[in-house]
Design brief:
heterodimer, A: alpha/beta, Rossmann fold, 2 domains, four-stranded antiparallel beta sheet, 10 helices, B: mainly alpha, 11 helices, globular
Chain lengths: 237, 298
């Protein structure tokens, strides 16, 4: 399997506070990889390092080429879609306008026309609710809209930051079902940050556990589910 | 005090709508920049004055009115764009007070520059509209007022269509609402903000060129109009484009009627009246008529 994304000894800091101390990981083409860890372990910062919204040292390669000198808006053009912490919706704009913004990077008018039917296939309710202001959707709906907006750009790599945060278990199940379908049917590569370790390990092929800015454990999700430390610290049994 | 007659009342309303349309244009320019940069641009009036002088100069060089008008809009857009890139960008991540002080500095600088280039004596500025009135059901309506109103409102309408129906307009709104998320979707946010400043400058130029035939051209011509525009923007809600337009028109009519029919207001107290409205709105309803109240969970 060829690697789509590689992080090589990536370190990051927010002012005087060090958030990552030399994280190395890789995500293969067509893989779902989960990033687990406690609050403050550096999961979100790792995603932000990839989308270049935080300054880092070390190297990050996408499709084999270094992207550390790229600006965030240039990464969307390369096919990296980042659904950030807090979802990053345009609360004052309508559902449809949010989706159109997903198409922006690839030529809005043509792209939205091509991709809307495909995205509505995953989330049929979006089609009926196009005029609603995004900020008035429920939490689960907002998370689905954020995912749908990312899909409109037909990314190769999806970065998902805690999609389950604050959502009801059934909604979370539905969301992860869509992510798995995207992976199986479209070959979408996913790097997902998740506190719900059970769910993350069920959905992913491989996983990394971050602890205070370092990769503490890595392996196949199968292995990690049986791993003594992971079970005790993150799975709760 | 003259006796009340209905024709004169309606005449006051139409002339109030004309000056209100000018306030609305400038107020909308303030709102555009407020939404993009989160500050009030105190230099908005001086930018408008400067560009009105450019229009005057173009006409002095023999350009007919409307070509000069359009060329001035293009120059104003470029100027506003450049100001954002060169002057505002270096301080864009600083606290708001820093940016506000930069705009006040620009107010002084542009005002001085205008006087230095064109001198401080008052100049006449041509109007594209005939200087006569038409009689509509006994009400004498000045064609100057009708023209001013139509040009300002047409400009606002074009802007609305741009923001509503074009991809660039959508991206600009998105960048104003959530710059971080826009960047992740491939939007060059810095360019969007600069385009916002460019559009605001062009809108100010329209207000300046529409005001100049009646106020005459001098380096301080927009000072009073800017204060009306502040009041209009606050009345409508400083983050609401619709509010700016409704606020501007309301203020124009209201101030005109108060000045004419409330004896103690007269000519002299019109501007203080606008300030009183501004203060009242800030105390009673800080978010204005159409603005969003900021709600924070703590």
């Amino acid at each position: 399997m060829s690697e789509l994304l590689e992080l090589d000894n990536v370190a990051a800091r927010y002012g005087p506070i060090s958030a990552l101390h030399g994280v190395s990981l890789h995500v293969g083409e067509g893989e779902i990889v989960a990033l687990l860890g406690a609050n403050g372990a550096g999961k979100t910062t790792t995603l932000r390092a990839v989308s270049r919204t935080v300054r880092t040292s070390g190297d990050i390669r996408y499709e084999g080429k270094s992207i550390v000198r790229r600006a965030p808006d240039a990464l969307a053009k390369l096919g990296i879609a980042h659904v950030p912490e807090g979802r990053g919706l345009f609360a004052e704009l309508s559902v449809w306008e949010n989706l159109r913004m997903g198409a922006y990077v690839r030529g809005e008018r043509r792209t939205i026309k091509q991709e809307a039917p495909r995205v509505f296939g995953y989330f049929p309710w979006l089609e009926r609710r196009g005029h609603q202001q995004a900020g008035t959707l429920s939490g689960g709906e907002q998370q689905m809209l954020a995912l749908a907006r990312a899909l409109v750009s037909r990314p190769r790599l999806l970065l998902l930051d805690e999609p389950s945060l604050g959502l009801a278990p059934t909604v979370v199940q539905e969301l992860f079902a869509v992510v798995r379908r995207l992976n199986e049917e479209e070959g979408l590569t996913v790097l997902v940050v998740e506190q719900n370790a059970n769910l993350a390990l069920e959905s992913s092929a491989r996983a990394y556990v971050l602890e205070v800015g370092n990769v503490a454990i890595e392996g196949s999700s199968e292995e990690l589910r049986r791993h003594e430390g992971v079970r005790r610290s993150y799975l709760g049994y | 005090m003259l006796a009340f007659t209905w024709p004169e009342f309606f005449q006051q309303i139409t002339s109030g709508l004309a000056s209100g349309a000018i306030y609305a244009s400038l107020a909308l320019a303030l709102v555009l920049i407020y939404r993009a940069t989160d500050v009030i641009n105190f230099a908005q009036g001086e930018m408008a004055t400067f560009t009105t002088y450019i229009a005057w100069m173009l006409m002095q060089h023999g350009l007919p009115y409307w070509p000069a008008f359009v060329l001035t809009l293009v120059i104003a857009f470029a100027g506003g764009f450049a100001i954002e890139r060169v002057v505002i960008r270096p301080v864009e991540n600083r606290p708001e007070i820093v940016i506000v002080i930069v705009t006040i500095g620009m107010l002084i600088a542009i005002n001085g520059l205008t006087g230095w280039i064109w001198g401080s004596e008052v100049k006449a500025f041509d109007s594209p509209f005939p200087n006569r009135t038409v009689d509509v059901a006994g009400v004498a309506i000045s064609l100057q007022d009708v023209g001013t109103f139509c040009v300002c409102l047409a400009t606002v309408l074009v802007l609305w269509l741009f923001f509503r129906f074009t991809t660039l307009g959508l991206a600009m709104r998105a960048a104003a609402v959530n710059p971080g998320a826009s960047r992740l979707l491939g939007v060059r946010v810095g360019w969007m903000l600069a385009i916002g400043w460019g559009l605001a400058a062009a809108l100010g130029a329209v207000a300046g060129m529409m005001a100049a035939p009646t106020t005459f051209l001098d380096p301080n011509m927009m000072l009073v109009i800017l204060i009306y525009a502040f009041a209009a923007a606050v009345l409508g809600g400083i983050d609401s484009p619709v509010g700016a337009v409704v606020g501007g028109l309301t203020l124009g009519v209201l101030v005109n009627l108060l000045g004419r029919y409330v004896a103690f207001v007269g000519e002299e107290l019109r501007l203080p009246t606008a300030l009183a409205i501004l203060l009242t709105v800030l105390v009673i309803r800080p978010q204005g008529l159409f603005g969003h109240a900021v709600v924070r969970r703590v």
